[in-house]
Amino acid sequence: MKKSACSALSAPLRLCGEHFSMKSPDINQLSSQIIGAAIEVHKHLGPGLLESAYEECLCRELGLRGIGFERQKPLPLEYKGGKLDCGYRLDVLVENQILLELKSCDKVGPIHVAQTLTYLRLAGLRLGLILNFNVAMLRDGVVRVANKLEE
Questions:
Q1: Partner of 70 at 20 to 30 A CA spacing, among 30, 81, 87, 120?
Q2: pLDDT score of 151 more than 90
Q3: Domain range spanning residue 100?
Q4: Per the domain annotation, does 1 fall within a domain?
């Protein structure tokens, strides 16, 4: 289950709402647009807030930019022929292509990358971005996670 706090590591809710767009940009172009939106949010808020505040503001920014998204999308597990609702949710799914895992922790560690990769695999997605807003410069808090993505 998703935890709201992150522990310091040495290595690098509910269904709230959704917004859809008819655009379908290239996945790399879309990831650049998402990072630009996240940087804008970070410029206005800075580090130190809860993930939920960054999620709210990032979704507002994506909507203002006409980028489609779903918030807190349920992620059922398939196990032995059945779909089980275990309470997992994707923080933000952008244009049905890119998973955003939002963090506000000291460091993004291997467990965060592993969690994101598992979510990508379970959701059948190819690209995820871990966005850690608890950094001085957001570019230092962006981790790109690929699941069989040809780059």
A1: 81
A2: no
A3: 26-146
A4: no
